[in-house]
């Protein structure tokens, strides 16, 4: 119990101190995730050892999942559907063409750098690092200086690509791990995609529409107090996520789709609710990244090798940027816009969740895969954190 109070005191004190200096750090392009991870790493066993965290992987995974679900729901709720409808072909290209090409490129580079790792395990690695992160990309998608069309496209891409990658990951894991697969591969693929995406979208839309209608009715009747009005959006977000997960669907798809429907229906107090949920999401992100720094970074950074570092660099550059250019071929966008969209595909919470799943699967090359994901996320936090505001302001 004393350790628990010690952990609470340190994290709470750090949160307060960071809140005071957050504006100063952001003005010099130091992102919050960079500070959180460094603090976690320095506070863990490899540093001062003042945060005696020994959290089970499931705990880290659940916290990261809930954080990502809230970020996805909040971002989708604030999306401008009019702008999105006018440029719907762009996120469709990124998701239906760019995402598969990214995975294929990731497999090719992985097999070249890790010749002793099987094709299927390299495919798992490429899938874990294919989705972009909505939380780390928030500095770009929330910057009003960036053209609205580009912001909405990147927001939708990051909101849906992790949910699409979930069934791909599970299919590969089912094939790799003996005794996990029943029936043919084609049956498994169809089943997982229909189940994950279909159930996720249906659950998210249904719960969000019902919740938004009930909320709007309660507001008109003046039943809802200001305090509880602020809690409603996070509550609906977690309901969408948890319900979809419990029914076998993708909670991430449910969260983003639910956010789109909720935001399109709710009109009164919408901005206030989104602002509060973003504050809660920021607090959850802080805890998630600190735990990541203490438990994951401290454990796996000692296993870095040159191939792992090279793969991480290529994953954030060629493996991401080239597919964006290919899928946008023929689209009337200038070179900088395509390069901007290609570069700002940060890796973060979704990749961490996938890494925890793989870590619990006891794959032969599990340590290599987890270390590569950890290295890629860390490089992404640094590279995208340092370039987000300067390039966004210049581009705008």
UniProtKB/TrEMBL annotation:
InterPro entries on file: Cation/H_exchanger_TM
Membrane topology according to the record: Multi-pass membrane protein
Cation/H+ exchanger transmembrane domain location: 19-392
Main location: membrane
Subcellular location: Cell membrane
Membrane-spanning residues: 6-25, 94-114, 153-177, 197-219, 253-269, 281-302, 308-331, 343-362, 368-387
GO molecular function: antiporter activity
Superkingdom of source: Bacteria
GO annotation, cellular component aspect: plasma membrane
Alphabetized UniProt keyword annotations: Antiport, Ion transport, Membrane, Transmembrane, Transmembrane helix, Transport
GO BP terms: proton transmembrane transport
Name by which UniProt lists this protein: Similar to NhaP-type Na+/H+ and K+/H+ antiporters with a unique C-terminal domain
Source species: Crocosphaera watsonii WH 8501
């Amino acid at each position: 119990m004393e350790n628990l109070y010690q952990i609470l005191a340190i994290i709470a004190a750090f949160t307060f101190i960071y809140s005071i200096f957050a504006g100063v750090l952001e003005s010099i392009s130091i992102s919050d995730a960079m500070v959180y991870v460094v603090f976690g790493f320095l506070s863990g066993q490899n540093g001062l050892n003042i945060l005696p965290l020994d959290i089970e992987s499931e705990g880290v995974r659940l916290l990261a999942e809930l954080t990502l679900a809230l970020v996805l729901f909040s971002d989708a709720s604030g999306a401008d559907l009019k702008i999105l409808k006018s440029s719907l072909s762009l996120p469709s290209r990124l998701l239906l063409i760019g995402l598969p090409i990214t995975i294929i490129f990731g497999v090719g580079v992985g097999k070249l750098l890790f010749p002793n790792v099987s094709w299927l395990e390299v495919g798992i690695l490429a899938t874990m690092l294919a989705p972009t992160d909505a939380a780390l990309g928030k500095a770009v998608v929330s910057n009003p200086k960036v053209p609205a069309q580009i912001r909405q496209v990147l927001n939708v891409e990051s909101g849906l690509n992790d949910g699409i990658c979930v069934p791909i990951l599970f299919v590969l894991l089912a094939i790799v791990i003996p005794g996990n697969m029943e029936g043919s591969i084609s049956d498994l693929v169809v089943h997982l995609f229909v189940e994950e995406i279909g159930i996720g979208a249906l659950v998210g839309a249904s719960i969000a529409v019902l919740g938004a209608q009930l909320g709007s009715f309660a507001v008109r009747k003046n039943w809802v107090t200001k305090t509880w009005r602020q809690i409603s959006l996070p509550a609906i977000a977690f309901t969408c996520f948890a319900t979809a997960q419990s029914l076998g669907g993708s909670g991430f798809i449910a969260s983003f789709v639910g956010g789109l429907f909720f935001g399109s229906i709710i009109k009164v107090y919408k901005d206030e609710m989104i602002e509060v949920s973003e504050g809660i999401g920021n607090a959850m992100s802080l805890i998630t990244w600190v735990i990541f720094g203490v438990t994951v970074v401290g454990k796996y950074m000692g296993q870095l090798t040159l191939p792992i570092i090279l793969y991480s660099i290529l994953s954030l550059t060629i493996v991401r940027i080239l597919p964006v250019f290919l899928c946008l071929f023929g689209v009337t966008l200038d070179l900088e816009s395509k390069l901007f969209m290609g570069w700002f595909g940060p890796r973060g919470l979704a990749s961490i969740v996938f890494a925890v799943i793989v870590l619990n699967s006891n794959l032969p090359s599990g340590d290599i895969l987890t270390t590569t994901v950890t290295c890629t996320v860390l490089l992404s936090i640094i590279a995208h954190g340092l370039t987000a505001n300067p390039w966004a302001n210049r581009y705008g």
